[in-house]
Amino acid sequence: MMGDRLRFHSVIRNTGPKPVEGLTTWINLLEVDPGNEQPMDLEDWSAHKAVTRAELPPGKTLESEWLMRLIKRGVYRVVICVASRNRRRVFTSPTVEFRVTQKPVVQSRRILPVAFGVPLMIGLIMLLRRFCPYRVSETTDTLLMLCVAFFFFLMSRRSGAHPLGG
Amino acid sequence: MLIEADHISIELSGRPVLRDVGLHLNEGEVYGLLGPNGAGKSTTVHVLLGLYSRSSGSVRVMEQDPELRAPAMRRQVGVLPERAGFYGWMRPEEYLQWYAALFGGARFSIPGLLERVGLADASERPIGEFSRGMRQRLGIARALLQAPKLLILDEPTNGLDPRGRREIHDLLRSLARGQNTGVLLCTHLLDDVGRLCDAVGIIHRGRTVLEGPLSEVLARKGGGRSYRVRLETEGPPENATLPTGVHARTLSKRWCLVHITAGAPTRPSRLWKYLLETGWRIVEIHDAGGGLEEVYLKCTRGDDSARVGDER
Amino acid sequence: MNPVFLIARKEAGRLLLDQWALAWLLAFSAVLSGFALLLVSNAELSLLDNAQVVYMMAGTVMSAGAIVAVILGCDAFAGERERCTLTPLLLAPVSSRELLLGKALGVSAAWGAAYLLAMPYLWAVGAGGQDLVQAIVYLALFGTPVVLGFGCLAMAFSAKTGNVITSLVTSLIILLLAASPLLIGPGLRGTVIGRMFDALNPFAAALNTFDAVVIDNETFTKQLVRLTVTFVWLGITFAVAYCAARRPRFR
Question: For residue A42, what is the DSSP state?
């Protein structure tokens, strides 16, 4: 689902008799939705895009973790590529396919009360101060603000989400 | 002595503003600091309060140098600045309590003080709704919060109605006489100075051109009173004799100027009676000024550079 | 009570009592509301990644908070001077250091109010994801020195010039330069000067931290250099404000 994180684990082993020098390994993401096949720019998906190693001795392995955040709905394949300084050939891993389902991130039922409620609250305080400037004490204003805070708290309980996340 | 300032000079933005100012104020004395607009009265006050650093000269306020011990000195000085500003969203009592707290608390009861300056009825209104005169009264209350030994008031009766002006005069007089408070009054209103002050100083173009007790200044500078008198006849009677200290001069056919010098024993009402008895056929009399006004105009006219040495 | 707290209490009380200060809080909330409504009304933006949305909102809160701090900072001395309330303050037995600290605490209170006002917005856009708490914590940690630094800079200009418009324009230009890394294009940002500008710019430091922590899940220890940049910025601007406030222009 959009917003979730996936972790891919890659193992690169030098099966040859000589050390591999100037090793570079990177992750690729391909969108494979019918009619929309394209390589993805990893900019928003992952900060962890490549690993380099000066030398990989024979028989040794290079293990890497690739963290990816799911940004957009669709069907995708991940492939890990390896290249070295002296060989022209690029080695690729088997691909892993996954599907990202859409989830609206920004929900109007949360945003609308806040976007209209907060300015309205300040506007109300301004009106109160304008029309009865010396009857409304600081305490009244503070109480008003606390009431609004309580309103938000109740609203968050009703929508089943904790105001601080989750 | 509450204020002892000699030969103060100061430059602001490279321009000399005060060149040679002196001011001496004793306890229980009301001192009128006079001068034309831009003469340096407010700058002098700011130097006395340590808000400006002087280029030269010496200043002692309450025996302290205001530049070195400004916070300590300010606890004993009440000030009404040239333009009294307040926080409009506060009520007067709230504001005075807050301002007094900066000094460590008020020495007077704040409601009593508001009553004393005539603001008891307005204590529930926010200051933002106050008229200029009410703000001026609140400024005076603020200056009095600490029961100061020295009061410095810049144009205190600005914006006040005649009754308010009279009340402030009475208040200042009672402070000076009853509580031995020294009052430095910066003003353009010569009438205020004439009514209230024991001593006077005149600043012109950044220099003190005259300073001393009011009576001495008037006597020394010949600050008498002049009247324009219209006669039925052409000129006063021939061989007319005038009392000591009274001089007459013909202005036109039927107008002449009668001048009573300062310190002369003759009072105007008696003079008119005497003149009528000696054959003056007076039709009307107009006050042509004189007194302090005359002294002030003399001191602040034209180039003062030659006058400084003569007068001080 | 200590004069610092008396002045700070007056400044903070004004936020709730003065129409002018309330109007700025209203403007602040209107900016956040506008941004939140844009997110919900725009089909593409509403599908943005949760972390991306929270990062954008945190950046907006910090930018709007810095503008409010600049406005209040400019008012701290120049506004008081123009309303003729600075002279009475200078005539009270309060040192310039206490006066500046009181004013700085007042700006902090305004930022505190703005931060609290931003909480419902952050919750509204970020409650569905896992990045909300990080955003709230890092906004407090990195946003506070950046915002207060701009407040102090505005106070310095305000005390020196004694003119609200002059100090406001100068401070806002500096804020815009710092807050718009786009002004120097990607090519220039890759150069030594561009990289130096990015490294020394407190605004960029805070924004890059939000990006690194909220989007890329980097650890706190990796942000220490950027945190140092923001606090050095606060220290420098406070020192400049202190020098300017020693003899503020009051006439």
Answer: T
Q: How many CB atoms lie within 10 A of CB A65?
A: 10
Q: Which residues contact A72 (CB under 8 A, 6 or more apart)?
A: A2, A100, C47
Q: What pLDDT band is residue C186 in, cutting at 50, 70 and 90?
A: low
CA distance C100 to B235: 72
Domain assignment present for residue B98? The answer is: yes
Token look-up 């010039």 returns C161
> Does B168 lie in the same domain as B63?
yes
> Does residue A2 carry a pLDDT above 50?
yes
What pLDDT digit, counting tens, does each position of C11-40 carry? 887 776 777 778 888 999 999 999 888 887
- Asked if residues B295 and B217 have their Cβ atoms less than 8 Å apart, the reply is yes
Give the A:C interface size as CB pairs under 8 Å. Answer: 133
> How high is the ipTM of this complex?
0.83
Yes or no, beta carbons of C46 and A105 under 8 Å apart: yes
**C49/A contact by beta carbon, under 8 A:** yes
CB contact under 8 A, C94 and B102: yes
Selecting from 3.30.70.60, 2.60.40.1500, 2.60.40.10, 2.160.10.10, what CATH number does the domain A5-100 have?
A: 2.60.40.10
Residues of A with CB under 8 A from a CB of B: 129, 133-134
Using alpha carbons, select from B75, B23, C120 the residue that is nearest to residue A156.
C120
Q: Report if residue B303 sits inside a domain.
A: no
Q: By the CB < 8 Å criterion, does C17 face chain A?
A: yes
A94 DSSP assignment: P
B286-311: pLDDT as tens digits: 876 667 777 788 788 764 433 333 34
Does the distance separating the beta carbons of B125 and A134 come in below 8 Å? yes
Looking at residue B32, its amino acid is: G
